[in-house]
Fold:
Amino acid sequence: MITTKPVQGVAVEPRLETAVRDSAGSYGDDVAEWALRVLNVEVMGWQRHILRQLLSYDAKGRWCNHKALVSVARQNGKTVLMKSVLGWYLSQYLAEEKQPQTVISTAHELSLAVSLFTDLAPVLAEKFGAKLKRSYGRNELQIGPHKWLVRAATHSAGHGQSTALLLVDECWGVSQDALDVGLLPTQRAQPNPLCIMLSTAGVESSTAMLRWREQGLRGIDEGIDTGIYFAEFSPDPALDPMSPEAWRMANPALGTTISEETLIAESMSPNRAAFLRSSCNLWVQSDVGWLSPGQWAAGAKGTMPLPGGVLAVEVSVDNGRYCAVRVNKTAANELCATVEFIADTMSQTWQLLEEAAKDPKLIIAVTPTLDVNCPLHLKRRRVIWGYQEVTRYTAAVRQMIIEGRIEHDGSKMLAEHIGRAVAARTAGSIALSSQRSNGPIELARCLVAAVGFAIGQRSTAKPMIVTTAPRRTA
Structure:
């Protein structure tokens, strides 16, 4: 039974977060002090943590990460965070900068972008002498030699501008063309640009946010710098998303801007998908996933498969990423899975596959799209898989996961793909469906193929046929 006791155990740090490298300091506390002094707002613990991380700078005074994506459930204070950064940047950070600089803010809807201007611009005008130009869709602010522009998130947004700071609110609804063609190119000529994207979990069409999120997850899994600071407040996959424990991980402002009683009431809404997305910051409805919450997470043993086994590779729907999962037994004779690599080009993929193929015990499983460019010397080493194989193996692999017969190394990106995967009904079976899943599931499909081939391996030796002739008797 859910009760409404005082909230405890609310997350202050995000569940998913990339490491900030080469930091010599941060302006995070300066922004918090500015918000208290100018806006009369005391930032919350989670906001202070995010500010310290995304505003970290190196020994040369350059931002440690020139791009940032922060994701948290609704009504937790994203707007206050954005307002504090923007106001501090214009009035304090650029105060000694004589070269004119441009700041652009946008959102998935123009009305939301304008509301930020409506709230913050009068404060900057009153306390710092900024000059305002009000024209819906063309709102501008001039503060010293610097200007702040409010623009709609379109593919032509930002053209003709060189932007030092770019703020994108609710980027789940911003198209890939608007972000990658219209806005981000405005920062190419800047010596020290900064782009901050804030959002709640998106939907299937949120391709721009998904790609940046996947890049952040890749940085977490591989421990590398992918050029973005990524932070997400969301429930652990092992938790039931309808539980208070899950809500506390996705709502760091619980007990401050929102109450647990409010979440309890919202959880009773007939639109469960909307609740999971807005209040739990989840991308996919757990009730339609092929696995129940916690089933895949239970297999995270931190172990690695032995060399060899099956390496399954697939290309993403937009042909922008190539994913590979390898499955083999462990030293303890348990089946284990790991993300072998994620590549950005086909040529890089085949280089990695040729390197992996040096292991004579490895079976390479590729999709028809990749097989077209398969080198001749690997033709005998590879097998081809597609929807037919996914249909054949999905139910069996699902049952093995439920029974705890598949271990894995705890990859975050693999867990995300498996968690959002939806299985569609077919004739007498089920199959993972990219069309019905809210986001990429290439790694999940690779897992199904790799496990399927691993458990279905048969000897390839030619059978020996023996015949005997009847014995003659005298």
